[in-house]
Amino acid sequence: MQQTSVPGPGSRFYLQCNRNSGLTKILAAWLLLAAAGCHSGKEKKPKDKGPQGLRAEAVVVQPTTLDAVYESSGNLLANEAINVYPEVSGRITAIHFREGAPVHKGDLLIQLYDGDIRAQIQKLKVQRQLQVITKERQDELLAINGISKQEYDNTVAQIASIDADVEYNEALLRRLQIKASFDGIIGLRNVSVGAVVTPTTLVTIIQQVNPLKLDFPIPEQYKGVIRTGNVVRFTVTGSRDTMSGQIVAIQPGADATTRTIMMRALVPNAANKLVPGAFANVYLTLDRNSGAIMVPSQSIIPTTRDKKVAVLRGGKAELVTVTTGMREVEDVEILHGLTPGDTVLTTGIMQVKPGVEVKVTKIKQNTAR
Predict the structure, then answer these.
(1) DSSP state at residue 224
(2) What letter does residue 361 receive in the DSSP assignment?
(3) For the chain, which domains are there?
(4) Of the N and C termini of the chain, which has fewer Cβ atoms inside 10 Å?
């Protein structure tokens, strides 16, 4: 008879242990597969190679000449100018000038009627001639005591009196002639032949336009910097040329309202390109610095606290803090931070970072001006 073994508690435990061992193996295999999947899906990060290179243009700064210039507004005036009025009342008999034409000192412009005065002068000359003849006869009589000395003296006095009357009337003649007081250009005439004029009648004007005066104000604090003989530059509306003049006079006192001092310069105008009364933009050099460091304005990097420029040193960019001074149209003065020979980047400024390698594509020498 065959015996059948019934599993006991030990056998049960054996079966349970085998079951747990299989689950453990499955779980371990699953974890290995998951780990392998995660490892295979992980992206490879590129190696950090540091800042990338930059292509830019640059300028090598050198000492230049910089003028400290003050800008003002001025007016061009005729060097000499007068309104022409008659000295006495009278009727115009002749006009001897052409409107807008040049005139010279002493040229006769207007002739007033002088017929009555000329007749009076002629009469006096006849009387004088008679007295001269009388005196010649009395000279002979006086030599032989044929006439008293008193009668002779009366004749001499008559001649002197007539001479005085002639001189007076000739002065009246000159007042009836209106002449040019200086070389210049005559303006438009306001009278015609036959018109009766008085001392209040404006006949015309005369202006001397070569040279011209240029009057302009400057702040009172600059009075000690400017001297007579200094050169000023200016421009006028309608012309692109920059012209110059020389200071000839300085107002001794300042205006109490504006606190400015008036300056006057003389401006050559041989070609008559300038006209009196024109407005002028005046540029006055206050100081000259022959060792100024200038960089293009686009090289300045403004920050919240200061200003910087990108300087190329050892092939890499370096941001240098600078102090700026005067500004021109395209350049800015650097007071501190740069030295002659520094290479300053002019393009690619926004991409510059400290230590970035820079390849200069174009370099310019900022030579002295």
Answers:
(1) T
(2) E
(3) 55-65+290-366 (2.40.420.20), 71-78+210-289 (2.40.30.170), 89-112+178-202 (no CATH), 114-175 (1.10.287)
(4) N
